[in-house]
Design goal:
Helix 1 packs antiparallel against helix 2. By secondary structure, the protein is an all-alpha fold. The chain is built from six helices and no strands.
């Protein structure tokens, strides 16, 4: 959702279209952000949960810093469209991470896979 609306928003022909695409993107981020913060704590053993949550919090800050740096560099040569395309490309590693992440213990229990849930919890 974020990559497609952000990339499509670069071809906006008016401020109104741009604002609609940004609103959709913001809604997607607002819906997924709580899950993104909780998910790392569910897929690691109990002893690593604090580090997983701290790592997630640090990643948000690092992400904002990188985004601001990319915006500063791209703004001069490519304008606001370059900033949006550059920052949407930065989301691509997230697709790989989601594909490789293990399921949460609650999901495994829901599916009846008790052994896998126990391995995740330990």
């Amino acid at each position: 959702g974020v990559v497609s609306t952000q990339s499509t928003g670069t071809y906006s022909s008016s401020l109104g279209e741009f604002l609609v695409f940004r609103f959709i993107m913001g809604s997607v981020i607002g819906i997924t952000a709580p899950s993104a913060n909780i998910f790392p704590a569910e897929v690691v053993p109990k002893s690593w949960r604090t580090f997983a949550m701290a790592g997630t919090a640090l990643a948000w800050g690092l992400g904002y810093t990188v985004t601001c740096t990319v915006a500063y560099v791209f703004q001069e040569g490519y304008g606001w469209r370059g900033v949006i395309v550059g920052s949407s490309l930065a989301l691509s590693p997230g697709i790989i991470i989601v594909a490789l992440a293990r399921e949460s213990p609650m999901f495994d229990l829901y599916r009846g896979n008790v052994e896998e849930a126990q391995k995740t919890i330990q």
